[in-house]
Amino acid sequence: MDAEKSSSSSFEDLSNLNEQERAELASSVVSEPAQTKTPVSGDAPTDQEQKLESESNPKTEETEPESECMDILGNGTLLKKVLQKGHSELRPESKDLVTISYTGRLDDGTVVEEQTNLVVQIDDVEVVQGLDMALKLMNEGEVAEVIVNPRFAYGEIGLKDPTELDPVIRTVPPNATITYTVTLVSMREESDIEARTYTSRKEIGNKKRLRGNYWMKRQEYNLAIQ
Questions:
Q1: Rg (CA), the chain
Q2: Where on the phi/psi map is residue 12: left (φ > 0), alpha (ψ -120 to 50), or beta?
Q3: Based on the domain organization, do 177 and 199 belong to the same domain?
Q4: pLDDT for 166-219, tens place per residue?
Q5: Side by side, which strands form the sheet with 143-148?
Q6: 177 with 211, same domain?
């Protein structure tokens, strides 16, 4: 009986010792301070961070891309760029009558040609050949820049004096590239020649004669007979 009590007492003493050890261990442990979470590069930015970033890097307004320059002949001698789109999808065809306004400048900015509301017939070369060709690629109401190589302008001869056809033309030096700003104001089909009056037909014939003589004097024989 005493042995059982002693054995029981020994067990109780060991149990108390373990509890004491646990208490001492618990009291010796110092609680670690809470760690703050550091942002990771992969974490999504907060609303405040996004706001600060947008204020420091304001977005620039997007602008419409400029119109591309059309290489009409594919060799760089006749270029066309739309400055203002037309109000119609219609384009003039051969022998149509068009009303145009234009200004021609040399590379240094000198104005050498200027016309307002001039009526010309497509493919009759009543203006320089390069401009005549470009008109067929313009829409009604369009404003375009047309850069004409000397070959399709006034060539090696240039234009020394005002002509009977275009009295407002200034002197154009030989081998000069001319940049035209041209507006296709309006266009219409040519009326039936048989329906015209005698006076009207005479005016047309005289106009073509003067044009032919002009190109003949410049030894542009192909243009003279068009």
A1: 44
A2: alpha
A3: no
A4: 555 558 888 999 999 999 999 998 766 666 676 766 676 777 777 777 667 776
A5: 70-71, 78-84, 143-148, 178-188, 97-105, 111-121
A6: no
